[in-house]
Amino acid sequence: MTSDEPTEEQRDQAALWLAKRTGGSFGASDARKLDDWLNADRRHRRAFDDLRVLYAQLELPAQRLAARTMFRRKLALGLRPRLGWLIPPAAAIAVFLGFCWLNPSLVENWQADIVTHQEIVSDITLPDGSLARLGADTAVGLDFRDGRRRVRLLRGEAYFEVRHGVPGTFTVITRGDEVRDIGTKFNVDMGIAETDVVVSEGAVAVIGSNDSVPVILREGNETTLAGGRVGKIAPTDTSLALSWMSGRLVVQGARVADVVRALERHSPRPIVVRGRLADRRISGTFPLTDVDASLETIAQAVNATLTRVPSLLTVLY
Fold this sequence. Notes:
Layout: H1 8-22, H2 28-40, H3 42-66, H4 70-83, H5 87-102, H6 105-111, E1 114-115, E2 122-125, E3 131-134, E4 139-143, E5 149-161, E6 170-174, E7 177-181, E8 185-190, E9 194-201, E10 203-207, E11 215-218, E12 221-226, E13 229-230, E14 234-235, H7 238-241, E15 248-255, H8 256-264, E16 271-273, E17 281-287, H9 291-301, E18 306-309, E19 313-316
Helix pairs in contact: 1-3, 1-5, 2-3, 3-5, 8-9
């Protein structure tokens, strides 16, 4: 039996619909699309109704607060004819910001053309014929207009096999940093503060937003982009760096925080690493299809404690 509980993806979509409907730019075409979406799955309607209740609960306290003092009441009366139109979009923005706080990925998903969830690999053929293999919880935006071949990696990890003989330089952009194809297959892994680039075939030109000239990264090498600058180039075992595509994470001397971040992409709930444990180093092979088992292995290896809060988060400390 299918659960009536909406998925996170459905809740995100419901939030977007509610923000659009209450924002004042909702036409007849939008109304038909919303009805189609609501009728497609009963969980869609439940997610939307839950958000409408939350919206009402947020709007009422705001109205009471605005009328709490005589000054505010007079100000509201004086400005209402001119600024009353601001109330619906302001309320919509408040709801949207609330959901951004609950789900930081919401804004990135809105900006993206493609968003993956917990699939190990999602193969995408780009408009120019290049192949992108996207990891779990990855969001990308595409710009292939007017001779441009640009992919904006907003979140996650992606492996590219670039098609040649097509006009324009194939470029991957992360946080303003750029990885430009020279004739290659390469992997880009966007972390919280750093982006790792690995070349498995050919070469790329890598330039940070604060760099003046690009650095050439060749087959079998890797580098890290941080603070808008390219780090040191170092040899790497590409089979380890690309192991995520086979459903396993293989690491040697990696920070616990980085390993957990990679596993979190395949988890239905957040995973938090506390204290100095984040900087401990670990080696091993961890299945991406069983995140709980991988976390147990990590906890045993570094003598840590693993605590789960059902449906909310997992804490490693």
